[in-house]
């Protein structure tokens, strides 16, 4: 953010540093002003940060101001080593006081407090503690002191996560709604300017103090862990992927949000499902009440679950985690008509984008996609055939359990529908319809919403976790739309949005649904085209699990979350060969 100011009375360059991991961080408990020291793991993280910052950066520091809490004070000590640099205790840099909930995981907070804290943190005042506004006021006081005492110099502030978050939000000019969007890992460092002008205190010029985390850099960090290279297989690839996306070699997958989008399909009138269309509304109610498989998995793996009615045919009762965002009561029967209008498609895409952005604002490290809609395997198969030219025999599977003549009928419906739409398009002079047009013609409202969510994540450092066949097709549609949009505006570049999406994508499991392998093949073909020399792009996208599942609901994505958390924990917490004094392999 650029500030134009006159009559600068004093200015200082700040190196903002967050301490390494503590036992409370690892356990997901807020520590606030509890004087919790770092673990050995946390100290090693700080030493690795010192190596990344390089000697020249640390030698340029003229003074250090540190929170007096052990974890911050020790971080400053480890970073500065034996450098002759004054160090000042600054109680104003202490972490937020959480009051009566200090030391507790947010699941143990009073009812509603955690939700308020995640949705609108600036309005929360912790009982017997303080608010973010009070924290900001005391931090501003010490910044004025630092700027007046060290004008023209470089000063390190060794402090805590919420202190940094408040300062960076202000310096970047972000709104309160974006508070949790900032990613501030343990043992990370940021540059920021601080000036005193006639208008008051001015913060700006924010940038990461550490070098950009490239794929080779993340791979090198993983290769230095105390195990043979490649010994953890795909888990290592996921850790590297998370490091690149989050731009830190200390990646974290802690908070994961799962969005289930529900909608009905007019194509069920063709008898393509073993279950009646009414099951869509019935299962959506089951999700809202907490009785489905995905609810059990979400509770088991501590996922934030949103159930979004984007097109269910029927009225649903109000439930706390049921989001009413109905675009229409389902799609039309696409065998002889477009499934939806252009306006319906735009609205469904917007619903998905809004839910993903909300998850990002709530501080999610990963966003998972799930769906519910009787008839949606038929729609997803039709889309895949339209995108790839494959016959229905290779894209249409059992779905809810259709077999034998029923399966042949389902495949016939898809082939027949695609032939009808191609003829209709040709009659109107369209020989090569784009992805949006196919999504409008044979897609579903929940598939469009998932595509909208996928497109929304490309601007944020979060992983996108696809479930099975249907969500993979939705991501394929999203990537194709991003690519087509960039091609039309002639802005394809090294960081194309389509590549950014695929860079963030995790396929949770290999579905037993017929078309999933073809959908994955199509994604990898696109990734290969867009990889532009990126080493990570040369590695095929592979599902993490292969358990014969085909339930949907986001169940496979939920099952993969422990693997994601394990992968990032290994990269963040595992000792290096030099840390542990372990000999490396022979050259």
Please name the defining characteristics of this protein:
6-stranded parallel beta sheet, Rossmann fold, 13% strand, alpha/beta, 2 domains, disordered N terminus, 587 residues, 6-stranded mixed beta sheet
What does this protein structure show overall?
With 587 residues, this protein is an alpha/beta fold. It folds into 2 domains: 10-211, 3-Layer(aba) Sandwich (Rossmann fold); 254-398 and 434-562, 3-Layer(aba) Sandwich (Rossmann fold). Helix content is 44%, strand content 13%. The protein is built from 20 helices and 12 strands. It has helices at 23-27, 40-59, 70-80, 113-119, 132-149, 161-172, 215-223, 234-246, 279-289, 293-300, 342-361, 376-388, 404-427, 435-442, 445-456, 469-489, 497-504, 516-530, 555-573, 577-580; strands at 10-18, 63-66, 87-89, 154-159, 189-197, 200-208, 256-263, 303-311, 322-324, 366-372, 463-466, 505-507. The chain has a 6-stranded mixed sheet with strand order 3-2-4-1-5-6. The protein is elongated, with a radius of gyration of 26 Å. The two termini are 48 Å apart. Residues 1-5 have low confidence and may be disordered.
| Uncertain segments | 1-5
Q: Under CATH, the topology of the largest domain is which?
A: Rossmann fold
Q: Biggest sheet: strands, sense, closure? A: 6 strands, mixed
Structural class label:
alpha/beta
CATH class categorisation of the largest domain: Alpha Beta
Helical segment tally? 20
Quaternary state of this entry equals: single chain
Report helical residue fraction: 40-55%
Q: What amount of the residues lies in strands?
A: 5-15%
Shape by Cα distribution:
elongated
The average pLDDT is 91
Q: Please give the order of strands in the largest beta sheet.
A: 3-2-4-1-5-6
Overall domain count: 2
Strand tally: 12
- The assigned CATH architecture of the largest domain is 3-Layer(aba) Sandwich
Looking at CATH, the homologous superfamily of the largest domain is Nicotinate-nucleotide-dimethylbenzimidazole phosphoribosyltransferase (CobT), large domain
End-to-end gap: 48 Å
Rg of Cα set? 26 Å
């Amino acid at each position: 953010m650029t500030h134009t100011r006159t009559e600068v009375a004093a200015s200082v360059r700040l190196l903002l540093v967050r301490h390494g991991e503590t036992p409370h961080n690892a356990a997901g408990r807020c520590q606030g002003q509890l004087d919790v020291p770092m673990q050995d793991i946390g100290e090693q993280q700080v030493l690795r940060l010192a190596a990344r910052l390089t000697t020249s950066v640390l030698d340029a520091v003229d003074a250090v101001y540190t929170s007096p809490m052990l974890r911050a004070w020790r971080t400053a000590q480890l970073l500065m080593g034996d450098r002759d640099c004054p160090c000042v205790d600054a109680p104003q840099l202490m972490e937020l006081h959480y009051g009566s909930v200090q030391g507790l995981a947010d699941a143990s907070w009073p009812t509603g407090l955690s939700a308020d804290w995640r949705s609108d943190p600036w309005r929360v005042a912790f009982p017997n503690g303080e608010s973010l506004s009070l924290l900001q006021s005391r931090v501003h006081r010490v910044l004025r002191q630092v700027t007046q005492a060290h004008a023209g110099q470089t000063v390190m502030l060794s402090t805590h996560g919420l202190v940094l978050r408040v300062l960076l939000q202000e310096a970047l000019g972000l709104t309160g709604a974006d508070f949790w969007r900032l990613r501030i890992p343990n043992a990370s460092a940021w540059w920021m300017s601080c000036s005193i002008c006639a208008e008051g205190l001015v913060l700006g010029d924010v940038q990461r103090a550490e070098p950009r985390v490239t794929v080779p850099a993340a791979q090198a960090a993983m290769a230095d862990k105390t195990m043979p290279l490649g010994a953890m297989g795909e888990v290592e690839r996921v850790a590297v992927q998370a490091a690149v996306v989050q731009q830190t070699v200390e990646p974290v997958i802690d908070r994961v949000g799962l969005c289930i989008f529900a909608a009905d399909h007019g194509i069920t009138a063709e008898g393509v499902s073993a279950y009646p269309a009414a099951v869509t509304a019935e299962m959506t109610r089951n999700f809202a009440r907490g009785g489905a498989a995905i609810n059990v998995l979400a509770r088991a793996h501590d996922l934030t679950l949103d159930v979004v009615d984007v097109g269910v045919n029927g009225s649903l009762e109000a439930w706390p985690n049921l989001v009413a965002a109905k675009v229409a009561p389902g799609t039309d029967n696409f065998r002889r008509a477009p499934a939806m209008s252009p306006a319906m498609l735009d609205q469904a895409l917007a619903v998905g984008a809004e839910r993903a952005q909300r998850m990002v604002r709530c501080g999610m490290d990963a966003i998972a996609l799930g769906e519910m809609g009787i008839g949606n395997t038929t729609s997803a198969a039709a889309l895949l055939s339209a995108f790839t030219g494959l016959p229905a025999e290779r894209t249409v599977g059992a779905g809810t359990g259709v077999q034998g003549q029923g399966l042949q009928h389902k495949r016939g419906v898809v082939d027949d529908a695609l032939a009808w739409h191609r003829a209709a398009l040709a009659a109107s002079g369209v020989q090569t319809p784009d992805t949006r047009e196919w999504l409008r013609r044979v897609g579903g409202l929940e598939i469009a919403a998932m595509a909208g969510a996928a497109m929304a994540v490309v601007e944020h450092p979060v992983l996108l976790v696809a479930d099975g066949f249907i969500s993979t097709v939705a991501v394929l549609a999203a990537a194709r739309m991003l690519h087509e949009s960039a091609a039309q505006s002639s802005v394809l570049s090294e960081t194309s949005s389509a590549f950014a999406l695929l860079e963030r994508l995790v396929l949770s499991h290999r579905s037993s649904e017929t078309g999933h392998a073809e959908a994955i093949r199509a994604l990898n073909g696109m990734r290969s085209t867009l990889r532009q020399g990126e080493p990570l792009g040369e590695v095929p996208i592979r599902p993490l699990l292969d358990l014969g599942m085909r339930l949907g609901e986001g169940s496979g994505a939920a099952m993969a979350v422990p693997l994601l958390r394990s992968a990032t924990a290994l990269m963040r917490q595992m000792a290096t060969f030099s840390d542990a004094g372990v000999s490396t392999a022979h050259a």
